[in-house]
């Protein structure tokens, strides 16, 4: 037993040899790995914070846009109400059958328009701005379905992707598209062509969605191109148009951090081009450049 304790392993000093690269390579490598982890975590947090602030800015812009639309629609509703009252008074005192028929038509149009305005005001009142992942193709198709397309006008759709997602408010985006399609219809009607064509093109890259709406209508004179986004400016008759359509569209696109430009040649064509930020984390494959 004495020999066991005398020659046991703990009585001997064991020599431990540590390779030199442990001291020279591992500490810097560990530091680099730690730094990379911190940078990735910081970038992830920064991106989330940026997206949060960006979404808040979009919602703030669209809320302001809602309030402006309410003011415009309330003014329009007041005008139609006055027309309705005057039509009723004139209808009650008018003598001829032809005049009566015309006044009845005016009254009917006023009633229908007031119902449409009331519906629009209710939609805006109940609207909750929602900048969620939406498919732009769905917004385009929905807008086309809500516009009355004459038989002599053809809609040509060129979609390079069937699903192109972006963070945008579906209600406002659809209304903007309805405005653009309606403008194309008006331009074709004004030119009085036998065959009208509206070409809608959608393409995408990793970061952007490209949308083009081109028509073969009357075009816009060059001197007006820089003014068409101004509120209440219009190349149409002031008696029939208040000129708020393109201004509204421009504000919707820019509220979503997008870009918009118009190319046009009088008596030949108008091409509206729009760029919108694309969602990178939802839906479909990225488009080709």
UniProtKB/TrEMBL annotation:
Transmembrane segments: 20-42
Domain Histidine kinase: 71-280
SUPFAM superfamilies, per database record: ATPase domain of HSP90 chaperone/DNA topoisomerase II/histidine kinase
Reaction catalysed by this enzyme: ATP + protein L-histidine = ADP + protein N-phospho-L-histidine
Superkingdom: Bacteria
Record's protein name: histidine kinase
MF terms (GO), sorted A to Z: ATP binding; protein histidine kinase activity
Keyword terms: ATP-binding, Kinase, Membrane, Nucleotide-binding, Transferase, Transmembrane, Transmembrane helix, Two-component regulatory system
EC number(s) recorded for this UniProt protein: 2.7.13.3
GO BP terms, alphabetized: phosphorelay signal transduction system
Entries under PROSITE patterns matching the protein: HIS_KIN
